[in-house]
Amino acid sequence: MTAxxxxxxxxxxxxxALRTFLHGLPGVDRVGADARAAGLGTxxxxxxxxxxxxxxxxxxxxxxxxxxxxxxxxxRALCAKARQPDPGDPACPxxxxxxxxxxxxxxxAEALRGSGIHLASVATAFPSGQAPLKxxxxxxxxxVAAGADEIDMVISRGAFLSGRYLEVFEEITAxxxxxxxxxxxxxxxxxxxxxxxxxxxxxxxxxxxxxxxIKTSTGKxxxxxxxxxxxxxxxxxxxxxxxxxxxxxVKPAGGIRTTKDAIKYLVMVNEIAGDGWLDPDWFRFGASTxxxxxxxxxxxxxxxxxxxxxxxxxx
Length: 315
Hints:
Elements: H1 8-11, H2 15-23, H3 30-40, H4 47-59, E1 61-64, H5 72-83, E2 97-100, H6 105-112, E3 118-122, H7 133-145, E4 150-154, H8 157-161, H9 165-179, E5 183-187, H10 196-208, E6 213-215, H11 227-244, E7 249-251, H12 259-272, E8 285-287, H13 290-303
Parallel strand pairs: 1-2, 1-8, 2-3, 3-4, 4-5, 5-6, 6-7
Helix pairs in contact: 3-11, 4-12, 4-13, 5-6, 7-9, 10-11, 11-12
């Protein structure tokens, strides 16, 4: 289904017009979405395809540490792992990005220099988003100035759920401007959006406002990423490209811990959005524990046996 936008400037000119457009999007058949996601999750792939999928998934990981106990030493160790996930295998690809709090950006920028790995930072009063716009803009500008080339922002869920769509739209556009050349990932926090219809509306709102990626979750709210929610977001980016000619990425984050889970998502990307999204530029995993399982399964395919549980570093 392709929505009709006529033209974007009219849709985003007033709260009423934006509300009319968003509520005019096709409703989501919850039973159908759940069933299709479950069906795609049962697909099996050949061993040769599995090896390719594991390496692709590693290249799609945003290796993340977002704890109050984060230290410069922990961030430097995570950056070293991002550069060379398996020290015993130089053929193992590096990850897509490191994602840290703004205060840790200078440390990560130094540790990643010359690696080609992206440096993402959560900003805008992550994870609540409960701060004045000026604070969010200052947070964003500071992270970019310190070296972040990707910003993961959270939308104001209270405003969205109250139907104040133009307020959310204008906040995203302001933060996008504050990003400068850095890419903007817009976190919807789908676990708080209640309905699949809201997930679709928030996805379109974030894309209309200029987001480069739409992201499921902060990882701090349950449920985080799920297959049905990601399916809805993949349909949204596919339809947005068909309608506007602009391509937007998708990032499920939170709760994706195993290689089996990651492959389910890759199958879904291929089936729903198309193989053009099977690239770290357009699909990411927000994860902290997923990488170790991918490395264990990669070793199993190469050697026929699993490495010991202490072979890879714990994050």
